[in-house]
Design a protein that fits this description.
By secondary structure, the chain is of the alpha/beta class. 52% of the residues lie in helices and 19% in strands. It contains twelve helices and nine strands.
């Protein structure tokens, strides 16, 4: 049931006061001591992981609906851009961390399928002298094959998010090239130098130690492998930034209450965005983890940014 109007109003005003205070605080806190941040709260470091787990356990079933509602569907375009920027080719091994709902992995599979079909068409164009029977057999052989060695491994610490992703994969017909693994971004359950590409979309801000997550990303990538991170960032247009803050703190938690019956989880998600480091600071963190040629692209005036780096 939605909160009463007066209660909602008080919550909105309180949230707006909190964000104004937070602007005066450090935007990023690495947990070298006993405490870290959970949104705008300071909590014991060992509690953050459990709290974040409960947030996503709570929002899992309404996660896709809320993403569409909060971003007016634009999150789909951001994820499309991420995969186009990746430009994967058949044979690529992808690790998508914090990707339990499968959005990035499904796009990766679709992109590989399109690349495969394009290669098959080019091959058939080069075989003009074959009979129709030979062409048909050749085309069927390629169509029935696998994704030419490509595979996407979805790793998420939250089992409810993985459950939602698996159900979507069955519903949308993604039966090949996917595997689902429960695992912590700070301690990935994979061998060294196993993947060609590591992606994490809207997940890295929720880990307790971002530096450890980046080190793990570096460890599991092959030499020449690529790190790609899509994350909410800092808006570079002052007018848009003001409107974005008003929308974030006065609308999104209300949507969370009305659609998902969960004000607090969406309040945390908004606050966690404000605690994430700016684009250049996060770029330096990626470089500190050992990555080279680190760049970033702002999307929607910096509402989100895609950071890219390579393991050389």
């Amino acid at each position: 049931m939605a909160a009463p109007i007066k209660c909602v109003s008080r919550r909105c005003l309180s949230s707006w006061r909190n964000v104004r205070l937070c602007w005066q605080r450090p935007l990023h806190t690495q947990g070298h001591g006993r405490e870290t941040h959970f949104g705008f709260q300071t909590v014991p470091e060992e509690e953050k992981g459990e709290r974040v787990y409960h947030v996503f356990e709570s929002v899992a079933k309404k996660y896709d609906v809320m993403n569409d509602s909060m971003s007016l569907g634009i999150h789909r375009l951001w994820k499309d851009w991420l995969v186009r920027h990746m430009n994967p080719t058949p044979g690529i091994q992808l690790l998508d961390v914090a990707g339990g709902t499968g959005d990035v992995a499904f796009r990766f599979i679709d992109y590989i399928r399109a690349q495969r079909d394009k290669m098959n068409r080019h091959k058939l164009d080069d075989q003009q002298n074959l009979s129709w029977s030979d062409i048909s057999k050749s085309y069927s052989h390629h169509q029935d094959g696998s994704l030419m060695g490509s595979k996407a491994v979805i790793c998420d610490i939250n089992k409810e998010m993985l459950k939602v992703g698996k159900e979507k994969s069955l519903r949308f017909g993604y039966s090949e090239g996917l595997s689902w693994v429960a695992g912590d971004a700070e301690e990935l359950p994979f061998a060294d130098e196993k993947f060609d590409v590591y992606t994490i979309a809207f997940g890295i801000r929720n880990v307790t130690h971002i530096d450890k997550a980046l080190e793990e990303a570096y460890r599991v990538l092959k030499p020449g492998g690529r790190f790609l991170c899509l994350e909410f960032s800092h808006v570079n247009n002052p007018i848009l930034a003001r409107l974005y803050d008003l929308y974030s703190f006065q609308v999104i938690p209300v949507l969370g209450e009305v659609i998902a019956g969960d004000w607090k989880s969406y309040q945390y998600l908004v606050e966690s965005i404000r605690r994430f480091p700016p684009q250049d600071e996060f770029k330096e963190m990626i470089e500190d983890a050992g990555f080279f040629s680190v760049t970033y692209h702002n999307l929607t005036s910096g509402v989100v940014a895609v950071h890219s780096g390579f393991k050389l």
